[in-house]
Amino acid sequence: MPTILGASLLVFLILHLVPGDPATIIAGPTAPADVVENIRTQLGLDRPVLIQYGRYLAHALQGDLGRSLLTRRQVSDEVAGAFLNTFELVIAARVWSLLIGIPIGVVAAVKRRSLFDKLSMVTALLGLSLPIFWIGLMAIWLFAVQLGWFPISGRGGPLWSLAGLHHLVLPALTLGGVQVPALARLTRSSILEALGQDYVRTARAKGLAERLVIAKHALRNALLPVVTVIGLQFAGLLGGAVVTETIFSWPGLGRLAVTAILTRDFPVVQGTILVSAVTFVTINLLVDCLYAVLDPRIKYR
Amino acid sequence: MADRPTSALPPPSRADAWRRLRRDRASVAGAGCLAALILVAVFAPAVAPYDPIKVAMRERLQRPSAAHWLGTDQFGRDILSRIVYGTRVSLSVGLIAVGIGLGFGATLGLIAGFSPRLDYPITAVMDVLLSFPQILLAIAIVAALGPGIFNAMIAVGIGAVPGFTRITRSSTLSIRERDYVEAARALGASSARIIGRHILPNAAAPLIVVSTLSMAGAILAAAILSFLGLGARPPMAEWGAMVADGRGLIAQYPHVSTFPSLAIFVVVLAFNLLGDGLRDALDPQLGE
């Protein structure tokens, strides 16, 4: 909670140190001085910064993030719609990257020094250095332009509709693809470490089938660091979503933020960044709770 | 860490680390690649066959050929020359951003680790900074400063500060409890001397590793900002911006955005390889 407060203050301060006056932007460059002054008083921009922040916070807690300078719509409405779209994209990317990344890491660790291990780890190292926008552009070039399997860009509709799913595939593939290499590498090293532990030797010594040793003893213990990284990777997912949404014209938070920055629509910038930070903090909190589920030794008071 | 039996081993000597690093083919390859790129950046005017920002509409959108090895973009600019000059931009972005992160981060980390009174406020501010996904923090800062390559460097640099602060703080906390620091203090050494002679040299290894890996991250982040239109302004030859230039042409002319992407890939990979190698060399316990 203090972190979220701090984050909101930081966003607020950053955007209030901006050169350029919101009142002038709203009124337009040709507006007479008294009109600009009027707007400034209306928006409370003539008050001290801390008072402005207090008012912003009080309104934000009631779900009011101000109005867009450009469209005059409620920022909360614009952000809420965009948030759901980003959420859809991030979750789809997260799910498929976990479904690919973790098994690759497990197999690479279990079959250590095999061809699969070497190939997948070299690929992971290379993949770690690929810029996300190029993965997106290549996905468009291959699957949309050359093969024509998926649409080039846009959101097709709700997730449960065929068009919605069809449009989701490429952006989710791009966004999730960036996360796979790190996940596979970490899972592998984490399992390798677990396999070297005494309890694994004990389990083997008592004649447990190797499959059970891995599934019940190694994997469960190796998951803890993996879960940490899954949580931390949401930072990468939210950041990557900005790029992915721009490439695929996906109407999410990231694209909203970038457009708002380029048009200097500060209430929208503030709203999008604040919502992203709150989301990220919440996710990390959930991850912390997941620890307790995975590891009974950790107790929360 | 203390319960790990291996941590009883003395840290590797500098000669040990150096030997290990040179034996690791991947990091030698990374270092060689970086050396070549630095040469390219320094001698860009001699290396580049054409002027990187000269528009030649009659030669627009040529595919790779003998005259233009990597083809031309929609303004007829030679892509190879633009990539060569872009090396300068990317390497300096990495250096300046990591310099900002390391300079402020290490200083704050030392202060936090050394002064219990300042520890809490510094850690609290860093936690707030860490509550933003790094790219979003950079975007927020660019939103305030205005788009531009220099502001992008500052934004990426500020985003790197909390990571450096954390590492320096935790090394400082553990080193200041060691016997040799205790001994130095008992002999009447000043705080400044303890920091300069004992803490900094012993905290340097993780900082070197993180700096190298952060170069990769910073170059990638700055390229992303430029790709989004928040970094380098046209007509500057910057890789991320070049990829953005080719974005709409991906169907017919994939080479326009592919070659600058590959350039980013090579630099980032080189720093990652070297960083991984340095980590293994300086801290063998972390290896397999």
Task: Looking at this protein, list some descriptive labels.
heterodimer; A: 301 residues; mainly alpha; 13 helices; elongated; B: 288 residues; 11 helices; 70% helix; 0% strand; disordered N terminus
Quick overview:
The complex is a heterodimer of chains A (301) and B (288). Chain A has helices at residues 2-16, 22-27, 33-43, 49-61, 75-110, 115-128, 132-146, 162-177, 180-195, 198-205, 210-248, 253-262, 266-294.
Give your account of this protein's structure:
The complex is a heterodimer of chains A (about 300) and B (about 290). By secondary structure, chain A is mainly α. Chain A contains 13 helices and no strands. Chain A is elongated and about 85 Å long. The two termini of chain A are about 15 Å apart. Chain B contains eleven helices and no strands. Chain B starts with 13 loop residues before the first helix and ends in a 6-residue tail after the last helix. Residues about 1-10 of chain B have low confidence and may be disordered. At the A-B interface, helix 1, helix 6, helix 7, helix 11 and helix 12 of A face helix 5, helix 6, helix 9, helix 10 and helix 11 of B.
Helix content of chain A: over 70%
Number of helices of chain B: 11
Task: Characterize the largest beta sheet of chain B: strand count, sense, and whether it forms a barrel.
Answer: none
Characterize the main sheet of chain A: none
Q: Which spans of chain B have pLDDT < 50 for at least 5 consecutive residues?
A: 1-8
Shape of chain A: elongated
Q: List the chains of the largest interface with their residue counts.
A: A-B, 50 and 46 residues
Q: Could you say which overall geometry of chain B the principal axes of the C-alpha atoms support? A: elongated
Number of strands of chain A: 0
Number of strands of chain B: 0
SS field, number of helical segments of chain A: 13
Average pLDDT of chain A works out at 84
Beta strand % of chain B? under 5%
Helical content of chain B (DSSP H or I, runs of 4+):
over 70%
Oligomer: heterodimer
